[in-house]
Specification:
heterodimer; A: alpha/beta; Rossmann fold; 8 helices; about 40% helix; B: alpha+beta; Translation Initiation Factor IF3; four-stranded mixed sheet; about 35% helix; about 25% strand; binds guanosine-5'-diphosphate; binds magnesium ion
Chain lengths: ~210, ~140
C-alpha cells in the first residue's frame, strides 16, 4: 500500500466524502449464460488486474452474487468508481433435468437447481441496493423475454439508470439490431465480453450513464 | 372463498374432462387485491394446472416478487417454475402523478402458466404466440 493510500485509508469518513469522486454500485444482470461473469471479469481485470469468478457454459454457474469494490474506470477524462456486483442468472423456471443434459448426475443436478433458485432470489433482492445496472443479453438469442422485460420495468419504476449490453457480437448469428428494436427507449452497447470488442465504448457509456 | 374449497372444485372439474383449464381474471378483481394476494392466487392456480390470463397484469415489482415466490416453490419432479408473458407496462405521467413525483404504470394483459404447460413460441412488442399443452405428469 502506497503512502497516499495509507493516508486516505486513515482519514475520517467525512473528509473522504468531500474528496470522494463519483461512485456507483452497479449490478450486472441478465439471463443465465449471457456472459455476465465474463464481462465482470473483463471490467475488473481491465481496471484492477483481478477477477471475480469462474465462467462456464453450464447455466447458473454463478449461484451467489459476488461483489468487487472500488474499481476505478477512466473514460473520456472522467473517472468513476464502481462497486461491481455479478449476479446469478435470472429465470422464471429451473428444471434439474437441464443440468443432467450437461453430464451432471441426478443428485448433483438437483443440488445445482436448488442453488440456482436461491441465486435468482438473491439477484432480485440486490435490485434494492443498486445505483444502476448493466443488463446483459446474448445477442444471438431472442431478446424479448419476460426476465428482460421485468428487469427493465423494475429499473424504470425505481428511476435508476440502465445500460443494455448486447454481448457475443463475435458470433456470426449475433444481432444487436434486434435488441435495439426490442427496447428502443434504452441505450444498447454491442460488445464481445470474450474478445473485448467495443468494450472501450462500454466504459465511455458507463462513465456517462452512472457518473 | 377459502383455499380448500377452490382446490376441491378444481379436482372435480379436471377429473371430468381431459383438457386445459383457463382462468381469466378481470382487472376489477385484480385491482382490489394486495400484491401478495395476487401472487398467491396466480401461483395456486398455475400449480393446479390452470393457464391464468390477467386482463391487467402485475407491476414490475410484483413481477419480481412473483419470480421470487416461484423460486421458493420449485420442487424436483413436481414444479419447475412458470412461464409468464406480458407486454411491457406503459409509463404514464399524470398531472396528479407529477405533483406527487410518481410515475404511473399501466400494466397490461398477462398470461401465466406452469413451465411444463406453457411455452412461448414467439414474442414481440405487439404479438405473443404460445403453445399450451396438457400436463404431462399424473
Ligand atoms: N462467443 C462468445 N462467448 C461468450 C462471450 N461472453 C461469454 N461467452 C461464453 O458464454 C458462456 C457463459 O458465460 P458466463 O460469463 O459464465 O455467463 P453468465 O452465466 O451470464 O455469467 C461461457 O461459455 C462464455 O465463454 C462472448 O462475448 N462471445
Ligand atoms: Mg455468471
Amino acid at each position: 500500500m502506497g503512502v497516499i493510500e495509507k493516508i486516505k485509508k486513515n482519514l475520517p469518513s467525512w473528509v473522504k466524502k468531500i474528496f470522494k469522486k463519483k461512485r456507483a454500485r452497479i449490478g450486472i444482470y441478465g439471463p443465465p449464460n449471457a456472459g455476465k461473469t465474463t464481462l465482470a471479469n473483463r471490467i475488473i481485470r481491465d481496471w484492477s488486474g483481478d477477477a471475480i469468478g469462474p465462467v462456464s457454459e453450464i447455466p447458473h454457474e454463478t449461484r451467489r452474487a459476488k461483489r468487487k469494490e472500488g474499481i476505478v474506470v477512466n473514460a473520456n477524462g472522467a473517472a468513476i468508481t464502481l462497486d461491481v456486483v455479478d449476479t446469478p442468472g435470472l429465470a422464471t423456471k429451473i428444471d434439474f433435468h437441464d443440468f443432467m443434459a450437461y453430464g451432471l448426475d441426478e443428485a448433483e443436478a438437483k443440488r445445482r437447481a436448488k442453488e440456482a433458485t436461491e441465486g435468482v432470489i438473491e439477484a432480485i433482492k440486490w435490485l434494492d441496493d443498486l445505483d444502476g445496472i448493466l443488463l446483459i443479453m446474448d445477442a444471438t438469442e431472442d431478446p424479448f423475454t419476460q426476465v428482460n422485460v421485468t428487469v427493465i420495468g423494475n429499473m424504470e419504476a425505481r428511476e435508476l439508470p440502465l445500460l443494455i449490453v448486447a454481448n457475443k457480437i463475435d458470433l456470426p448469428e449475433a444481432s444487436p439490431a434486434r435488441i435495439k428494436s426490442a427496447f428502443p427507449q434504452h441505450t444498447v452497447i454491442p460488445i464481445s465480453a470474450l474478445e473485448g470488442y467495443n468494450v472501450d465504448k462500454l466504459y465511455e457509456s458507463i462513465a456517462n450513464h452512472f457518473g | 372463498m377459502s383455499k380448500k374449497k377452490t382446490k376441491k372444485r378444481r379436482t372435480e372439474k379436471s377429473n371430468a374432462h381431459e383438457g386445459i383449464r383457463i382462468d381469466i381474471i378481470s382487472k376489477d378483481r385484480i385491482s382490489t387485491m394486495a400484491p401478495m394476494e395476487k401472487i398467491r392466487l396466480i401461483l395456486d392456480m398455475v400449480r393446479d394446472g390452470s393457464i391464468v390470463i390477467l386482463e391487467r397484469g402485475l407491476t414490475p415489482e410484483e413481477e419480481a416478487k412473483l419470480i421470487e415466490m416461484t423460486m421458493t416453490e420449485i420442487t424436483p419432479n413436481d414444479f419447475s417454475g412458470i412461464e409468464i408473458e406480458s407486454y411491457p407496462c406503459k409509463q404514464r405521467t399524470t398531472f396528479l402523478g407529477k405533483l406527487l413525483g410518481k410515475t404511473m404504470f399501466e400494466t397490461r394483459l398477462t398470461v401465466v402458466g406452469a413451465a411444463d404447460q406453457l411455452k412461448t413460441l414467439k414474442r414481440d412488442h405487439d404479438f405473443i404466440s404460445a403453445l399450451v399443452s396438457v400436463r404431462s405428469r399424473g
